[in-house]
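Field reference: sequence -> structure
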Amino acid sequence: MVEKTDIERLTDYLVSNDEDKVLPPKLQQKLERVNFCDEQLRKLQTRKQVANMIMKRFDVGETKAYNIIAETQAIYGVAGNFNKEYSRIVLYEKVLQLAVKAEKAGDFKAAAALIDKAYKIAGLDKSDSGAPAMPLPVQINYVFDPTLLGAGRIDNLDQQIKSLLGKADEETTAEILP
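Structure field:
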């Protein structure tokens, strides 16, 4: 059995949302670093700026800082196309933040234009051939006699319904307080 890489183990940890799961100290340190890097990248800092911040904060060299950036993109992006997908995610979030600011400022035209941009960045304007087809609505047949649907006959149906409704009324009585 092949042992998982640190990136795979951290990705599994983040996806699991298991608050009781404890990471080993080495992975906890790596998680702290990639979370910091992710925060900075989402602020649309350049890779160079983020690398400098990582070097200062964690006292690591330039090569290690860029490795942390690559690990961050691998963990928070989509495997296989993580750099492009990660950038798309970051840009999408930033455009939505700008749309909210524009809306709060009362500039609804700018907000609508930004939401349209976010829509396109997310790829929601294109059909997704890999997406499952929408389920067909369930057909509901209303009938006065349940035997028409293959159910057994219910004796004294009217009395049973009145009895159940009476019980429901008794159970749901409430006192109105001033």
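Note: The radius of gyration is 28 Å.
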